[in-house]
């Protein structure tokens, strides 16, 4: 629920910024000049700056184009959100807290499995969940402990990778949205040419729509791809370290004898 609220907040801020930019562009585009008859008229701008041109492409290219831009902005906002979320959660200090490692190591050195299990309960997280799965089966033998830890490690790894999957979705979706905007812009452009004497302004706007959406999709996709692979490699290193660390901490359980009732 909190993640959804944060995402909608980001999109709301972006929408407000675009609206304010549109109003500013409309005010700046028209300047009043005096005509020979003494009436005020609006003088057309000689050249649009890139910001005003972009705003015109977003707000004046039709309903379908505006909806497409909303999806592009949503993809950009989602990419930023998931990147920040991964930066916070996919960290060695978050997944492998040193305080938990020290507490469990000390408990295992004392041979107190229950104390080690309590340490895991007091500091929940991926490593704690994996260790708890092993300690909970200590009376069933080391083979069962290994199987429980392996299963728990796979589950925690999947949870970590699911966070990264959303970045991959954004990275793949953004270029497709950009391509859709390109196709839509070219359709409008050729439809304008087919009408006979083309409206130069509408033709230029359609071509600008095609190019801007392509650029927008790439601007979102390129950082998302780079961020995805960066965090994926980091997650793989952390997972391998977690598995090795877990096996190191439970090695003393090899000597535990299973007492038959």
Throw out a few tags for this protein:
single chain, mainly alpha, two-stranded antiparallel sheet, 9 helices, 2 strands, disordered C terminus
Please sum up the structure shown.
This protein has 261 residues and is mainly α. Helices cover 79% and strands 3% of the residues.
Explain what you see.
The protein is mainly alpha-helical and 261 residues long. The protein has two domains: 48 residues, no CATH class; 195 residues, no CATH class. A two-stranded antiparallel sheet has the order 1-2. A hairpin with a 5-residue loop joins strand 1 and strand 2.
Shape: rod-shaped
Mean pLDDT: 75
In terms of DSSP E residues, the strand content is: under 5%
Return the string of H and E elements.
HEEHHHHHHHH
How is this fold's topology laid out?
Elements: H1 2-29, E1 31-34, E2 40-43, H2 50-60, H3 63-89, H4 92-95, H5 98-110, H6 113-122, H7 126-135, H8 142-194, H9 200-249
Antiparallel strand pairs: 1-2
């Amino acid at each position: 629920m909190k993640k959804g609220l944060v995402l909608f907040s980001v999109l709301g801020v972006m929408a407000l910024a675009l609206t304010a930019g549109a109003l500013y562009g409309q005010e700046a585009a028209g300047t009043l000049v005096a005509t020979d008859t003494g009436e005020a008229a609006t003088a057309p701008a000689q050249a649009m700056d890139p910001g005003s041109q972009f705003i015109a492409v977003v707000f004046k290219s039709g309903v379908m184009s505006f909806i497409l831009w909303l999806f592009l902005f949503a993809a950009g906002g989602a990419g930023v959100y998931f990147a920040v979320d991964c930066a916070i959660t996919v960290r060695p200090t978050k997944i492998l807290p040193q305080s938990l490692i020290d507490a469990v190591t000390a408990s295992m050195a004392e041979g107190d499995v229950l104390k080690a299990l309590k340490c895991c309960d007091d500091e929940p997280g991926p490593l704690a969940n994996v260790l708890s799965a092993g300690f909970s089966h200590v009376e069933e033998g080391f083979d069962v402990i290994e199987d429980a830890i392996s299963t728990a490690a796979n589950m925690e790894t999947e949870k970590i990778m699911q966070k990264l999957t959303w970045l991959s979705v954004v990275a793949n979706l953004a270029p497709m949205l950009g391509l859709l905007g390109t196709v839509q812009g070219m359709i409008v452009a050729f439809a304008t040419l087919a009408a006979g004497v083309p409206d130069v302004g509408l033709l230029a706007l359609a071509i600008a729509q095609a190019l801007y959406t392509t650029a927008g999709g790439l601007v979102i996709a390129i950082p998302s791809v780079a961020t995805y692979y960066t965090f994926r490699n980091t997650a793989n290193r952390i997972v391998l370290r977690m598995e090795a660390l877990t096996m190191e901490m439970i090695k003393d359980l090899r000597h535990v004898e299973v007492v038959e009732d």
